[in-house]
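Field log, afternoon session.

UNIT: design team B
ACTIVITY: writing a sequence onto a fixed backbone
BACKBONE:
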């Protein structure tokens, strides 16, 4: 992850939130469990290889958070990969208590899985970063849906949005692609726009002086780094709230400028 969050400044994922606790239980990947692209009717370069995905037996609830981006070192620091950074931050928080938890691989995606305690019950939360490149992200998501049987209402997609100012978060439970090809691929594969999505603004203050593709595939400037770090951390907070409290509560708390959200949470003098 190219944006480093200072652990001392962030609440642990294992802290109690409204009576709910993110536990450090890790769901190991069992060898021998596979999922083939042939099940999905995919062939050639669209096929998803057989992979070790772990057990598909479900607890009462299983949720999936997908970060969108492009694989490879040449893309890891780019604006287009901010969705990956949010998932890296979520996993980093889990590793505070369980340092052995690492990214595995499932359905051509980096994949990790944890158990979350919600009151008296438990839920599995899976994290996935598709390695199919942005425009084919939906292939991995569809494979994961077939493997684990997620309800579409239990999937959250996290990605960049050039239409939102840098430092702005927007969580929605449905809507169009708004021109984002990664989201378009996911919607095409899951066959519905009734899909939770968290957009992270990357639009600069100054007007663009380069073509849009060049802009999103370039790193953030040094002057933007502090705001980007705050945005990634707040987006991770929003993902946790989505899991624990639901989409409506998360929208009410986190939608808007991250600076405004931080200021509103400070006690008045």
């Amino acid at each position: 992850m190219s944006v480093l969050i200072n652990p001392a400044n962030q609440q642990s994922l294992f802290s109690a939130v409204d009576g709910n606790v993110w536990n450090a239980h890790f769901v190991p990947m069992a060898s021998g469990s596979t999922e083939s692209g042939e099940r999905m009717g995919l062939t050639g370069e669209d096929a998803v290889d057989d992979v070790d995905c772990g057990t598909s037996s479900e607890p009462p609830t299983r949720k999936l958070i997908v970060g969108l981006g492009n694989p490879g070192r040449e893309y890891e620091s780019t604006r287009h990969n901010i969705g990956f950074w949010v998932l890296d931050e979520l996993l980093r928080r889990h590793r505070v208590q369980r340092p052995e938890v690492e990214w595995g691989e499932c359905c051509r995606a980096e994949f990790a899985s944890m158990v979350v305690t919600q009151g008296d019950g438990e839920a599995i939360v899976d994290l996935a970063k598709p390695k199919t490149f942005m425009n084919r992200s939906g292939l991995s998501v569809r494979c994961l849906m077939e493997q684990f049987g997620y309800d579409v209402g239990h999937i959250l997609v996290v990605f960049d949005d050039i239409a939102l100012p840098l430092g702005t978060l927007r969580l929605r439970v449905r809507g169009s692609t708004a021109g984002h090809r990664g989201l378009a691929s996911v919607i095409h594969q899951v066959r519905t726009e009734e899909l939770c999505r968290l957009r992270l603004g990357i639009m600069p203050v100054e007007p663009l002086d380069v073509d849009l593709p060049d802009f999103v595939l370039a790193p953030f400037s040094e002057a933007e780094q502090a705001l980007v770090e705050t945005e990634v951390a707040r987006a991770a907070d929003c993902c946790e709230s989505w899991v624990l409290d639901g989409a409506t509560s998360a929208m009410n708390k986190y939608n808007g400028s991250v600076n405004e959200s931080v200021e509103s949470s400070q006690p008045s003098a």
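LOG NOTE: The CA atoms of residues 37 and 44 lie 10 Å apart.
NEXT ACTIVITY: expression trials, pending approval
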